[in-house]
Amino acid sequence: MSLKKGRLSSRQLTVLSLFVFVGDMVLVYPLTMVTDSHQDAWIAGLISLPLGLAGMLIPLKVHYFYPQMNLIESINKILGKWAGTAVNLFYLFFFLMATSIYLRAIEDFMCTQIFEKTPGGVFVS
Description:
125 residues, mainly alpha
């Protein structure tokens, strides 16, 4: 599983997507669903599961049809210059915010559950 020319294979993208999906389901989504839906959080979980799988399937299908291009290039090819740029900016902003939230959630989890006396900056840096 080595990178060739800085690109991910379909298998590598699937594994990364699966890890993000499972990490979301464990660290981020339970709190978000319970704060809004209270005792009906299980219904929100059942509804969000197929939507999350569909969200994971879209980049995999795009990679299948355009294996020689990265996500940014393939979106520009599919949607055109202007709409593709808008969607790509949204994706990049989403990935930046998601990464920040995931790092903070992992830091909180590690500091409160596993390494209780370790400062949080150790995990982030």
